[in-house]
Design goal:
The protein has four helices and no strands. The protein is an all-alpha fold and 97 residues long.
């Protein structure tokens, strides 16, 4: 649900020259959005996000995440829908593992 807003934010970062301040090898903010989000964000359907969280836990051992769920221009109603989806569809499945 947030992908269009997140994509717009990173397009702006790229236009502002933010790539120049990023570490070498991770500094091309102009790449295709799917390539940009890989290993950087958890995005997708509830089941896809569940699997991404599980994979993070299996590979790194983490058990806490700090998540941004609101991006510039995103309507508050969409943010609330996203929070409900996380609480009702994602987190219960993640906790089962």
């Amino acid at each position: 649900m947030c992908a269009p807003y997140l994509a717009a934010k990173y397009e702006a970062y790229n236009q502002w020259g933010q790539s120049q301040a990023m570490p070498a090898g991770d500094n091309d903010l102009g790449v295709d959005f799917d390539d940009l989000i890989r290993d950087r964000f958890l995005l997708g359907s509830p089941d896809e996000v569940v699997e991404q969280m599980r994979r993070l836990h299996r590979t790194t051992g983490i058990n806490h995440l700090i998540m941004s769920v609101q991006w510039p221009g995103m309507p508050q109603s969409l943010v609330l829908d996203e929070l409900h989806m996380l609480a009702e569809e994602v987190f219960p499945k993640v906790r089962q593992e």
